[in-house]
Design goal:
7 strands, alpha/beta, Rossmann fold, globular
Length: 251
């Protein structure tokens, strides 16, 4: 049976790359997007062109009140598109980066990061558990910044550290259903994340490249295929792990 993977925030960046990587491995994909339906439909079209099925839903991953209706829309889509009651993999990817020093960050900025990166991950997963197949997979996106610090990302790194621990508890509590749960922690990479800071600022790019064993920052093709491989049966015995994909950043 074809595996179905739901990836949040997959209209661009690492989410988009992960969706395409899953499709290349023969899977079908459900993606969510916050605002750009055009970008999301472009991803769907790319996956369709590979001969795989894909659909896109709008979802604000910070809005907990939207999760129950989303789960019902998803249930309907699974029945109508795949004649199934469940999907197989959940990739909690949606997120953003915001640069703010501790002395400058506002409560609103802090709360927004918590809502997207931690509270949203927690309660969206909770809402979708009845639809996630036994023996399935969950991948939560973390960050290399929980291990190697960079000024201005204290709040972001702190909420991602909470996700690392949430992953361990998910793995423990869902293990009886055969569900494996892991965190994938990318290092610095060239996307529009954080306003494209690493991609567009040559000085920042070189700073991170200089502290990376392989001598450069990452690109989406370094990370999306790794996430797709973690969802495969060949990684069925990996759970409760934080797996850093950073080219050896900060070693």
């Amino acid at each position: 049976m074809t595996k179905i993977t739901l990836i949040t925030g997959a209209s661009r960046g690492l989410g988009r790359n992960t969706a395409l990587s899953v499709a290349r491995q023969g899977g079908d994909v459900i993606i969510t997007y916050k605002s750009s339906a055009k970008d999301a439909q472009a991803v769907v079209a790319e996956i369709d062109a590979m001969g795989r099925k894909a659909i896109a839903f709008q979802l604000d991953s910070s809005d907990v009140t939207a999760f129950a209706p989303f789960a019902e829309h998803l249930r309907t889509a699974l029945r109508e598109t795949w004649q199934r009651e469940t999907f197989d993999h959940l990739v909690n990817n949606a997120g953003y980066g915001e640069y703010a020093l501790i002395e400058k960050i506002t409560e609103a900025q802090f709360d927004a990061m918590v809502n997207v990166h931690f509270k949203g991950v927690f309660f969206l997963t909770q809402a979708l558990l009845p639809l996630l197949a036994d023996g399935g997979r969950i991948v939560n996106l973390g960050t290399g910044l929980t291990r190697v610090s960079y000024p201005g990302y204290s709040a972001y790194a702190a909420v991602k550290a909470a996700v690392d621990m949430l992953t361990v508890y998910m793995a423990k509590e869902l293990g009886s259903r055969g569900i494996a749960v892991n965190t994938v922690a990318p290092g610095a990479h060239e996307t529009d994340f954080g306003g494209g800071l690493v991609r567009d600022n040559a000085d920042v790019n070189q700073q991170f490249a200089g502290m990376t064993a392989l001598g450069r920052v990452g690109v989406p093709d370094d990370i999306g295929p790794m996430i797709a491989s973690l969802l495969s049966e060949s990684n069925r015995w990996v759970t409760a792990q934080r797996i850093e994909v950073s080219g050896g950043q900060g070693i």
